[in-house]
Specification:
alpha+beta; DUF4907 domain-containing protein; three-stranded antiparallel beta sheet; DUF4907; 2 domains; 3 helices; elongated; single chain
Length: about 120
């Protein structure tokens, strides 16, 4: 009987050690995940752009152009935005989509919701 109790003692010690190591491993993984998610600190910038026929917008990342939109998207004509405010409204929508890791596409419904004259 003494042999069995020694084995139980040994087994419980292993379980305690594994549990402690598992807790440390989990804590390290959580810290690593937080570090990676906080490190993604990209600053996208939005600016208006004057074109020959109206307005457009530019989205940049670290002074590199990511999106340069000089015409109203989704419509069949090559028309620029009539006002700077319209261009910035659509640019802000695209910027929010990019920051949310969504596709930066714009639909006709988006243009209507933003009161953009087509």
């Amino acid at each position: 009987m003494t042999i069995n109790s020694t084995k139980k003692f040994f087994w419980t010690k292993i379980q305690k050690n594994l549990s402690f190591q598992s807790t440390i491993t989990k804590l390290l993984l959580v810290c690593l995940f937080l570090f990676i998610s906080c490190k993604k600190n990209e600053n996208l910038n939005l600016a208006s752009l004057k074109t020959q026929n109206g307005w457009g917008y530019v989205i940049t990342l670290k002074e590199k152009i990511i999106i340069k939109q000089t015409v109203i998207p989704v419509i069949s004509e090559n028309k620029s935005f009539k006002t700077e405010e319209e261009a910035l409204k659509v640019g802000q929508l695209v910027l929010e989509k990019l920051n949310s890791n969504l596709s930066p596409t714009v639909t006709k419904k988006d243009l209507l919701l933003l009161s953009i004259k087509i």
